[in-house]
Amino acid sequence: TQLLEQSPQFLSIQEGENLTVYCNSSSVFSSLQWYRQEPGEGPVLLVTVVTGGEVKKLKRLTFQFGDARKDSSLHITAAQPGDTGLYLCAGEARNTPLVFGKGTRLSVIA
Amino acid sequence: NAGVTQTPKFRVLKTGQSMTLLCAQDMNHEYMYWYRQDPGMGLRLIHYSVGEGTTAKGEVPDGYNVSRLKKQNFLLGLESAAPSQTSVYFCASSPTGLAGRVGTQYFGPGTRLTVL
After folding, report:
1. Nearest to residue B113, comparing CAs of B8, B4, B5, B6?
2. How far is A42 from chain B (nearest CA, A)?
3. Model confidence pLDDT, tens digit, residues A61-84
C-alpha cells in the first residue's frame, strides 16, 4: 500500500510569515498533485508536478517534486489570511487511483 | 458548466436506514470516484469507476455499493446505515490522462451525512 505522510498536521502562523509543508513517501510516484480545500467545499487542484526535481510557482506558492519522485514540498511566502485552508497532496502511480495524504490544516492570522 | 454536483447536501439517517447519494458531472469525464472525509483521516477512496458500466473497490468499500449506469452519473448506496458511516462524502471526476495517467480530479461540494 502506497502511503503519503504530510507534515505538519496543523500550522497556525501570523500574516506575512513564510511556511513549508511536506509530503513524503517511501514509494515512487509518476506525479504529485497539490490541492487546497476550504471549509464546506471540495478540494481544488493547485498544481501537478511530474518530473523529479521540478519546481513550479503559483504566485506566492512554490511547489517542488523530489529528485527521486518520492516527496514534495509546498512553500508559501508572506502568507495571507486567504491562504487558510486544508492542503492535500496526492500521489499518482500508473493505472491506480490517486493516493491522498491526510492533509495540513493551515491557519493564517491577520 | 456546473462541473460536479452532489445530491443531497445534508442528510440525517437512523441506524439501519438506506439511502443513495447522487453524483453528476457534465464534463464528459471517464473516471468518477467516491471518497469519504473524516477528521484526521484525509480523503479515503470508497469506490471508483473507469467508465460507464464499470466499478471497482477502493480503500474502504465495506457497507457501500455503487453503480455507473450512465457516464455522467455515479451513485453511492448505503443499504443499512451505521453510525460509523457518519462522514462527509465527496464525489470527484477526472478525464482520461495520457499514458494511463489519471489527470486532475474535480470535486463536488460534498454531502454531510449523519447516522444516529
Report:
1. B8
2. 5
3. 999 999 999 999 999 999 999 999
